[in-house]
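Z., the sequence and structure:
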Amino acid sequence: MVLAHGAWADGSSWARVITALEAESAKVVAAPLPLTSLADDVVALNRSLDRTEGPIVVAGHAYAGAVIALARPERVKALVYVTALAPNEGEKVADVFYRLEPHPQAPKLAPDSNGLIWLPEEAFASAFAQNASVDEQAVLAAVRRPYR
């Protein structure tokens, strides 16, 4: 399996999934996505796919749903979307966010002076890591990354 993390995360966001799959003797790789652009992230995912052998199941969380949809080597046997974005053909990732009115509690996101979008710290637990323990939330918030 190759696991692709969503925006504001890194491969450690899959920690519990990785340990559970490996306990079942699955070989697992967490693809490191740079989160610099959709195209860059697809290239990075393809590099991770190239490092594997045999048939592959690819899972994407949140934003990474768009990434895994564009990476389709012949060895990919299944795509798994974990609360993931699934843009329609020709649709941009940002378009998915505007299909419906945002939830009233959704954090307001805007690029900073460097053009990077950070998930506000006060919104991290409720908007990204709702089911994580307090300790897991602290780690995920500490390693969160911006999205461009």
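Residues 107 and 123 are 6 Å apart (CA to CA). Helices lie at 15-23, 38-50, 64-70, 93-97, 121-127, 134-142.

Let me know what you think.
H.
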